[in-house]
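testing teh design pipeline on a random one, pls ignore if ur not involved
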């Protein structure tokens, strides 16, 4: 059983917050305003210097429309929704990709869906 260290947990959370913010084309300032926090606090979260508290996680979850477990980088949430090992791999790779790659993947998949 893997034990999540603070270092790993903080980096997963910081990566998720930044990725979600960038996917929605929000600046740190715009995101901070949407959740009622300061831009400097958002920057600290994204740099892994601070971890958001429960109230902040709830606000982030509400703004982005994702469960708190996703923001925390909880692998269990991936496995719970995946329909097989290849989907787990796909979700993990997608979540670890940068925003440009994620947008490219979404574009390719939308083209495939349009052909159906």
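output:
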């Amino acid at each position: 059983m893997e034990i999540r260290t603070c270092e790993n947990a903080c980096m997963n959370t910081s990566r998720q917050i930044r990725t979600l913010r960038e996917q929605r084309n929000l600046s740190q300032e715009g995101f901070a305003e949407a959740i009622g926090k300061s831009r400097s606090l958002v920057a600290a979260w994204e740099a892994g210097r601070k971890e958001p508290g429960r109230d902040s996680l709830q606000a982030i979850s509400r703004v982005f429309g994702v469960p708190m477990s996703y923001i925390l980088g909880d692998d269990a949430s991936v496995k719970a929704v995946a329909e097989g090992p290849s989907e787990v791999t796909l979700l993990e790779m997608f979540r670890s990709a940068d925003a440009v790659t994620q947008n490219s993947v979404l574009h390719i998949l939308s083209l495939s869906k349009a052909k159906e």
